[in-house]
Amino acid sequence: QQPVQSPQAVILREGEDAVINCSSSKALYSVHWYRQKHGEAPVFLMILLKGGEQKGHEKISASFNEKKQQSSLYLTASQLSYSGTYFCGTESGSARQLTFGSGTQLTVLP
Amino acid sequence: DAGVIQSPRHEVTEMGQEVTLRCKPISGHNSLFWYRQTMMRGLELLIYFNNNVPIDDSGMPEDRFSAKMPNASFSTLKIQPSEPRDSAVYFCASRDPGEETQYFGPGTRLLVL
Asked: How does the average pLDDT of chain A come out, rounded?
């Protein structure tokens, strides 16, 4: 079953913060976050594993609430380059494959 | 490393024709995934290979779709006969046995007229 992402779209000004949420009805082993720019392939951002620590690099970080089967992606002091569609991919059970959410379109304006 | 390589990058064909998409995974990766992306359905997993063996093909839409992985460095996704509703971007991704991350290829943009 596909994870649910929210919001579907968000528009920010450069320097503003954003949070993108991903929730699943299944018990999750891991959550993967990808960013896709128009006409390009999805690019891996980070992975959160069950029992693992909150991840982050630069001004993008993420958390994983195992009890609620939810993950959130935090973008702070957004830059123009952050624009794109963000997807969460969830992995549950023993199947080492991802089910992707429908995506959140993020637009950062100057 | 060159990354995941897909060919062709663009394909335009007429309904009823056979279409073959190709993928070369990153050297040393033993898992390969075929995805389809459309506006309506998002990014869907079609089939997943591990060590050249199909593990899960439940996402393959119907018998018109078939996928093979004859060796560790090559996979094909074939559509025969193609239909306009097959128009989409098809991505191939691969994964290292010791990692969790999937690396996507640039995709093949397919248009069936």
From this structure: 90
